Amino acid sequence: MAKTKAFKPKARRPRGFEDRAADVLRAERALIRAASGVYEQWGFEPLETPAFEYADALGKFLPDEERPNEGVFAMQDEDAQWMALRYDLTAPLARFAAENFQDLAKPFRRYQYGEVWRNEKPGPGRFRQFVQCDADSVGAPGPAADAEMIALASEVMGAAGLSEGEYVIRVNDRRLLDGVLESLGTASLEKRMRVLRAIDKLDRLGMAGVEQLLGEGRKDESGDFTEGAGLDVEQRKLVLDLLKQSSISRFVEGQSTEDRNAAALERLETYFGELPTSRAAIEALHEIHGILGALGKTPAHWQIDTSIVRGLGYYTGPVFEAELLASATYEDGSPMRFGSIGGGGRYDDLVARFTGQAVPATGFSFGVSRFAAALSALGRLEGAGADPLVVVVAAEKDRMADYFAIAAELRAAGLRAEAFVGGGNMGKQLKYADRRGADFAVIVGSEEREAGTVSVKDLKLGAKIAQEVTDREEWAEQRQQFTVRRDELVSEIKARLSAAE
Which fold has domain 389-500? Predict the structure, then answer.
């Protein structure tokens, strides 16, 4: 009888999911620490919500459909109720606020970071699981709260290591477009969403592509056809005029930085001030302008741009995006383009889905992985690397307790240290220390123990010497290995680390 082969699963990742290595995680955690520090300083409280929510709490705000299995990863629980992995952190916040409404001090100011999952087609730089970091004010009416969020976004940019001129917060109010659509008699929800999605693609498709999507639709390079909003020629012209007249790349050409936003507001007054809904948006932008000025935020930090609409349907007023302006290059010299790395806005109807009463809210969110990758490419995440590492070599297998004690002593002094626990001779252990990027390898054999000393290899210095020195005699003169008294080990390593800074 033939033997049945044991099943061996193939080691493979599901599409759209990624493994994040140590350097990536450290960069992301450094960014989260920087942002969390800003949120704490501004009086926001941390919150953590479950990975799963009931799908009916998320479904209305999925990208295209309301079915539980569209856009999210869903399953049924033991009661046959659909649960889904959270699509973002805002819908769980709305559920939490509604569930605990009577007990919360309002406005409820919270920040949260964590994984989110999207059941969408993966692609380059587009993952099905990633980390978001949000700050929101629930129960905060009026443009003052929106202005605070825009200022907060600017502060996060600075805390992440960006300087003035390396980013801009682009600000709009969705009611500007609502007023135009109302004047055209095309304010139905379906048509409004198609118009919003078309405008949201301006950076990628340009004005011509947006005009196609505002009209009958557009066929992309693969042949896929996207149905348009169905606006006629005159209606398309009015929407495009809104984009052209205060988009920073068109309207403010030649304007100085100081008067850029003031000039944009004047232009909006002239063209759209007579439309009631648009009028409310202009008044809100005026108030935001004044508050941000009082906070020291100038057009070098934020700019009015009517092409910003944000894709999700739940925004009801001011919206904004944080755009990275700083540039970097790939190894071949070609430029890296970062674009938008976060955004947010006002969403006054989200909590009302649960409570039946309007609860004003506004917030800011950024994708941690995308932002951290951009900052790492720019070299702006200070402290994102690992602390220096010391590896204590297991020179004698029967003295492991001694080596663990040395590593513990180093850790107690604030250093990062480990005793080697794998198998192999001294050469293999030193190769391990090199591959780990360790700064020092500590060696205590029988000779060192009897003499009350410790041998230390300065691995970073050794790597530098290996690159710079070619002469054998000169190599022998280098002091990449040194000996110290056992009781001086910690102080000597600390001194050498300080000298290397």
Answer: Rossmann fold (3.40.50)
